[in-house]
Write a structure and sequence with these properties.
The protein has 327 residues and is α+β, with helices and mostly antiparallel strands. Helices cover 50% and strands 12% of the residues.
């Protein structure tokens, strides 16, 4: 009998909890904000409403592709959007939204970029310590570093690590250029200027020499020291390239302001007069370059007309008058 009573009480209690859970679930459903029907009373209402709709064009794919938000997450996004809009000038809402926005930028852009930069260097970025340093700086926590000292330390290591990485990747490239130019300078036909530029005159021109700000017309072909062609004016059309000598690499500037129009030179340019440590795609950092350069002309340059033969010159009027008087 006692067991039957306990069992009955257990059933009642279970039923009570189920009822309470049901009521809670029911309350949660009831508490959801009802959808307010939209009334478009005039043209401005329609323009405003359709403007809002138009602004979402491509947003759903963007949320999925850039933020990994699926269809279930869209409802959460909408709720956050509406809460922020409804908060007006509330500072807490603004601060929260700004925190989320900055955190997303740091997480998806800044941190991956830094991690990639320090890859294959003596140092690496530890994610948890990066975030801690970020937050401690905002809290003005100077336990380990003052802000100025932190920046100085970071930039010093950043520069040192970049040099170490570049040396590992491109040191052999620089050494190959140095070796090539050293051997090339021993050739009789090669002239070396004080800057280190080397050139060989293939065709001697007789025209004027451009100034740094003149627009010149040039045919060229560029090669690496291993003979690989990386660019040529012929690749960009059948007309010569046009530019000013002061708009190109230092080696070109120096050569063009020494070349008479009509000249064709072969240039051997050390990396410090070319692109140096910059990575230019086919031209890797610290690359010495070779160019065949033909200076076709200077834009706006006047060409002298050939002198006419004496027989082609018109008779002078004075001579005609004198002949008439004699008659």
């Amino acid at each position: 009998m006692k067991k039957v009573v306990l069992l009955a009480l257990a059933v009642v209690a279970s039923a009570s909890f189920c009822t309470i859970d049901a009521k809670k679930k029911k309350k949660e459903v009831v508490q959801e904000a009802p959808v307010v029907p939209v009334e478009l009373k005039n043209s401005s209402d329609s323009v405003s409403y359709t403007a809002g709709m138009a602004m979402t064009n491509g947003l759903l794919p963007f949320l999925k592709q850039q933020h990994g938000i699926d269809s279930a997450g869209v409802a959460i996004f909408i709720k956050a959007f509406e809460e922020y809009i409804g908060a007006g000038d509330n500072m807490e809402a603004k601060a929260k939204a700004a925190g989320i926005e900055i955190a997303n930028q740091v997480k998806t852009r800044m941190l991956p970029g830094l991690s990639s930069e320090f890859a294959d260097t003596p140092d690496s970025i530890v994610t948890s310590l990066f975030y801690r340093g970020f937050v401690d700086a905002l809290k003005q926590d100077t336990t380990h570093f003052q802000q100025f000292d932190a920046e100085a330390f970071f930039h010093a290591r950043q520069e040192a690590d970049k040099k170490a990485k570049d040396e590992k990747l491109y040191g052999p490239n620089r050494d190959a250029g140095i070796k090539f130019l050293k051997e090339n300078a021993q050739k009789d036909s090669v002239i070396t200027t004080p800057s280190g530029l080397q050139y060989k005159v293939l065709v001697k021109g007789e025209g004027p020499v451009p100034q740094r700000t003149d627009k010149v017309l040039v045919n060229y072909e560029g090669r690496l020291v291993d003979g690989t062609v990386f660019d040529a004016s012929a690749k960009h059309g059948d007309k010569p390239a046009e530019f000013r000598p002061d708009q190109v690499i230092k080696g070109w500037t120096e050569a063009l302001t020494m070349m008479p129009v009509g000249s064709k030179w072969q240039l051997f340019i050390p990396q410090e007069l070319a692109y140096g440590e910059r990575n230019m795609g086919n031209i890797k950092p610290y690359s010495a370059l070779i160019f065949d350069v033909e200076l076709v002309g200077i834009d706006g340059m006047k060409t002298e007309e050939p002198a006419k033969a004496e027989s082609e010159k018109p008779a002078k009027k004075t001579t005609a008058k004198k002949a008439a008087k004699k008659k």
